[in-house]
Design a protein that fits this description.
This protein is of the alpha/beta class. The chain contains twelve helices and 16 strands. Helix content is about 35%, strand content about 20%.
């Protein structure tokens, strides 16, 4: 399981700047997830060959003494619980503030590695001023300037040494279906309904506090692991910080699943937070099925399903080839149809097309509809093959791959989907030099 590093601190100390610098160190960045919960961000970084996830916990909103204490308590406790290591950011211009002291108290009680980063240290005078931060009670601090990157190397060198060694995951013998979504969307109820109706459960495997729960399940003669990301927060504590905690668990479940079953509340709509989770699965090249739960509570007529489905697909553009199932967990309507569809998506994601069949099918299409000429030069595709990757990737070998633009790649992707049925699965197209 990938380690998590949380960046904690009061507003205006440079947390987001450091976060952006860390995730930009990767050549292939997994985009940060912003907008899932307000001003929280998630991304991936690596240093000296060690890959880890980064959370920017956002700034504290101080409205009163009570709000001050509540915000610090909520956000820092979440960071402590979720992270393997914590970067505690302060800044040298204002020196130690009361909020810094309160955060330091909470962090010192944890058993997590804490790295005190003093930001905006960009001169010799400020280096001397930074000595003040020894008063926070940490053994060491790191001078840095997040805006230009100076000092971050020393911080990261020590940080990655403190991260736990990534456990080698046992080869998964069963597919993993992760049930994710916003709080109160019906994720727990969906899984409970499945388990209550089907007694083919073999065992429940509980992971660490940061892991989801896998349940072996058998339906339609197909055995798989249902990954439950629900039950993350109590109904009495529906707060933004705890929704962020929910999203972080969903993120980790998505990274290690084969198919994401995205459950959302149809009475609330396919909103921005749901869309952010959808695109996270897409960027991780996972199979996706969308479940519109609580459909029994929606006022509807004969055209409602088509109109709502059209709306969802508009929000998912250009990845619109996704199955959408309208369910009611309460009345157990179409819950098994949902699982049957998820199995189909898994099979689509695992599909391997013979090279001869690919060439016999795609080359005539490309010959009839070749890439547009660019500066008088014509692209000629000679050969196509599927790459040995967990999700469908195809390489088209041609003479001038640099002249193939995104619209034509989408055209080829749509033809592949039409000919070979990759519903619910991201398809990656490469044009390479022959």
């Amino acid at each position: 399981m990938m380690s998590i590093v949380a960046i904690v601190g009061r507003p205006n100390v440079g947390k987001s700047t450091l976060f952006n610098r860390l995730i930009e160190r990767r050549e292939a960045i997994v985009d940060s997830v912003s907008g899932v919960t307000r001003d929280r961000h998630y991304g991936k970084s690596d240093w000296n060959g060690k890959e880890f996830s980064v959370i920017d916990t956002g700034g504290y909103v101080v409205g009163s003494d009570d709000v001050f204490e509540t915000e610090i308590d909520n956000q820092v406790k979440l960071a402590i619980e979720e992270a393997d290591a914590i970067i505690f950011m302060v800044e040298v211009e204002s020196g130690i503030t009361g909020m810094d002291v309160e955060v330091a108290k909470l962090l010192r009680r944890s058993k997590k590695p804490i790295f005190l980063a003093v930001n905006k240290v960009d001169s010799a005078a400020r280096t001397n001023d930074a000595v003040e931060f020894y008063n926070l009670g940490f053994e060491k601090y790191y001078n840095l300037s997040s805006i230009n990157g100076s000092g971050t190397g020393d911080l990261l060198d020590d940080l990655v040494k403190a991260l736990p060694e990534e456990e080698k995951r046992e080869e998964a013998t069963l597919p993993r279906f992760a049930v994710v979504g916003r709080p109160n969307a019906g994720k727990s109820s969906f899984i409970n309904a499945l388990i209550g109706e089907n007694r083919y459960i073999v065992t429940d495997i509980a992971g660490t506090t940061r892991d989801s729960i896998d349940t072996k399940y058998n339906r339609f003669g197909f055995e798989f692991n249902l990954v439950d990301t629900a039950g993350i927060r109590k109904k009495s504590k529906v707060k933004e910080d705890l929704e962020f905690y929910s999203v972080m668990r969903s993120v980790r479940a998505i990274e290690h699943c084969d198919v994401m079953i995205l459950v959302f509340d149809a009475t609330r709509g396919f909103d921005g937070q749901v869309q952010a989770i959808f695109w996270l699965a897409h960027r991780n090249n996972k199979g996706v099925i969308i479940l519109a739960n609580k459909w029994d509570l929606v006022e509807k007529d004969n055209a409602s399903v088509k109109e709502f489905e059209k709306y969802i697909r508009q929000q998912c553009e250009p990845f619109t080839d996704v199955p959408i199932v309208f369910i009611s967990v309460l009345h157990k309507q179409r819950i098994y149809k949902a699982i049957e569809t998820a199995v189909e998506v898994f099979q689509n994601r695992s599909k391997k097309i013979k090279t001869s069949v690919l060439n016999d099918t795609m080359l005539p299409i490309i010959e009839a509809f070749p890439p547009p000429a660019n500066k008088g030069k014509y692209v000629k595709v000679k050969f196509v093959t599927q790459l040995p990757t967990p999700h469908p990737c195809f390489a088209f070998f041609c003479n001038l791959p640099q002249y193939v633009k995104e619209p034509y790649k989408r055209f080829i992707e749509n033809k592949l989907r039409k000919e070979f049925d990759f519903k619910g699965v991201p398809v990656t197209i490469y044009f390479r030099k022959k």
